[in-house]
Amino acid sequence: MTPRASPLVVKVGGSLFDRVAPLIEIFLEVGRPVLIVPGGGKFADLVRRLDVSDTAGHWMAIAGMEQFGWYIASHGIPAVTGLASPAGVSVLLPYCTLREADPLPHSWSATSDTIAAWVARELALDLLLLKSVDGIRHRHHLVPRIDDPGLAPEEVDPLFLPFVFEHGVRTRVVNGRHGDRVRGTLRDEAVIGTLINPRF
Predict the structure, then answer these.
(1) Closest C-alpha to 6, from 119, 86, 73
(2) Are 169 and 198 in contact (CB under 8 A)?
(3) Which end of the chain has less neighbouring CB within 10 Å, N or C?
(4) Spatial distance between the Cα atoms of 124 and 85, rounded to a whole number of angstroms
(5) Which helix (H) or strand (E) holds 47?
(6) pLDDT tens digits, the chain, 200 residues: what are they?
(7) Cα gap 127→184, rounded to integer Å
């Protein structure tokens, strides 16, 4: 990989809570500029169990993302509150930015996946979704590439595919529990996962 590798938005799913330290090590080792968007994880799961309005649940879940963001930052990388293309490895604390822009519906149809896609669109960057699955499946088979925004996969929230296709956000979905796959993706190598490329 050359030093000119373009910056990347990387959503670290909440299910990867126990993998934060090794993931940050990989990001720093590869040297590609990365803006991490934290998932909601256990913080958002708590909100799901509460009897609150859609709007209250929306902002509480985003506050949960912010808590996970601070946990990620505690591993020695800077936390940022505004949208800017990263120069190194940093993590976005999204609450204030999203309160100001309020770009998405207040419902569970738009979770941290679509929020990460919105961040990538705002910065005109590609997106990497790191999850605890190998990619997106259709009829029990891993799909290496998605060209149809009409699919409704369980691995991402319902608004995610329509959003990335409408806004041309090139995305890869990769299992964040496999360091070799994360490393390869950051280097633009072919790895097991799913490519969503609306700009074909």
Answers:
(1) 86
(2) yes
(3) C
(4) 9
(5) helix 41-48
(6) 444 689 999 999 999 999 999 999 999 999 999 999 999 988 888 888 888 999 999 999 999 999 999 999 999 999 999 999 999 999 999 999 999 999 999 998 999 999 999 999 999 999 999 999 999 998 889 999 998 888 888 999 999 999 999 999 999 999 999 999 999 999 999 999 999 988 75
(7) 15
How many residues are listed for the chain in this entry? 200
11 burial (CB, 10 Å; 0-12 / 13-18 / 19+) is buried
CA angle 20, 75, 13 (to 5 degrees): 25
Exposed (0-12), middle (13-18) or buried (19+): which is 34, by Cβ within 10 Å? buried
Which pairing describes strands 141-142 and 137-138: parallel, antiparallel, or unpaired? antiparallel
Judged by DSSP in three states, 171 sits in: strand
Q: Which residue has the tokens 């949208």?
A: 83
* pTM for the structure as a whole: 0.94
Alpha carbons 36 and 86: distance in angstroms, whole number: 9
| Residue with the two structure tokens 């280097």 | 187
Q: How far apart are CA 30 and CA 18, in angstroms?
A: 20
Tokens of 193: 């996962």
